[in-house]
Amino acid sequence: MNRSALSIFLICAVVFCSCEEKKTPPPQPTPVNLDTVHARPVVYYDRYPSTTVALSQVNLLAQVQGYLTGIFFKEGAHVSKGQKLYDIDSRIYQNNYDQAVANLKVAQGTLTQSQQDADRYTFLNNEKAVAKQLYDHAMITLQNSKSSVQAAEQTVKTAKQNLSYSVITAPFDGTIGFSQVKLGDLMNVGSTVLNTVSSDDPMAIDFLINEKQLTYFEDINKGKFNSVDSLFTLLMPNNSFYPQAGKISVIDRAVDPQTGAIRVRLVFPNPATNLRAGMSCVLRVRNVDSTPQILVPSKAVVEQMGEYFVFMAKDTVMAAKDTASKKQDHQPEERRGLFAFQRKVKTGETIGANVIIKSGIAEGDRIVIDGVQALHDGSQITTANVVPPAQPGKGGK
């Protein structure tokens, strides 16, 4: 064979080989670790965003006009009922009170005189020894004197009340805030807010529940679960646990028709005043349901756009997505083995490294717990190779 013929033969062989359709090898199964789902009784807590609320809170307003002449407390401190807090210049109110007392004494003296005159004229009138007109005038004068005394007494009460308003005291035991006024400021009646006092022991906790949960909380309020300790515990803003347990105080009268929510109020002892009004906390409500719960590792749960999924393992037959095989054999090839299928689940409370599954899988199902990062719906899997456990925070919920 000469060189020309050999060259032509080689070229044809290369063209023939390049034109032959190559068949893509089937993908290799992804190694994973599986676990069988079991239901068991668990103790867990439902969590609710909550806000601390003072059971009593009042703004201190000036009820008399005048200049502020005294401040007698430390801002942010605990105050006791009746404790003196502010003093508004009381000199004018003291003078008014003294004058009212003096006028009362004058009216009482006039009443004494009128009573004596009336008694005298009554005796003379009975003896027909005085003109009827003089007797009538004496009676009228007596009645006017009595009315003057009553008016003077009311003036004394008003003056005394205004004098007491010049000294502002704590309306109940609680914590006082920052003063809104300073010495020398002019107090206007009913409009000048001096400070705010709020009760601090006990402290209320308000949170919202769904109307579907109302019966459960009403049962708690009726004492159905009194044998269970610490039904209500509190997680502080710094994630530390509050040492005192709470109890239900009030369940609101009506459900909000727009949201289907109803407000519940708890009370917590607060002897150390660690709880302050307006704090954002997390209320933990212990679930007393003894029904077994499905608990799976959190790393087995995948979040996608706010929804949660697990991969369930199933022995089945899958049609191969090999287009070359389809063209050649006119039939899709079948692959037999273990496959992972994505299942949407509804999650509940997280308990340590596990999470409660409310729906989506059942007891006895096998799910992928390691290797979920490399899977998609319908992936062929194998348990022949041990997969290193997923690191916390990777691939899990």
Mass-distribution shape: rod-shaped
Strand content: 25-35%
User: What is the class of the largest domain in the CATH system?
Assistant: Mainly Beta
Q: What value does the average pLDDT take?
A: 83
Radius of gyration: 44 Å
Secondary-structure map with pairings?
Layout: H1 3-19, E1 30-31, E2 33-36, E3 39-40, E4 45-53, E5 57-61, E6 66-71, E7 78-79, E8 84-88, H2 91-126, H3 132-165, E9 167-169, E10 174-176, E11 186-187, E12 193-198, E13 203-210, H4 214-221, E14 232-235, E15 247-251, E16 261-268, E17 280-286, E18 293-297, E19 302-304, E20 307-319, H5 323-329, E21 334-351, E22 354-359, E23 366-370, E24 379-382
Parallel strand pairs: 1-24
Antiparallel strand pairs: 2-23, 3-18, 4-13, 4-17, 5-12, 6-8, 6-11, 7-10, 8-9, 10-12, 13-16, 14-17, 15-16, 18-22, 19-20, 20-21, 20-23, 21-22, 21-24
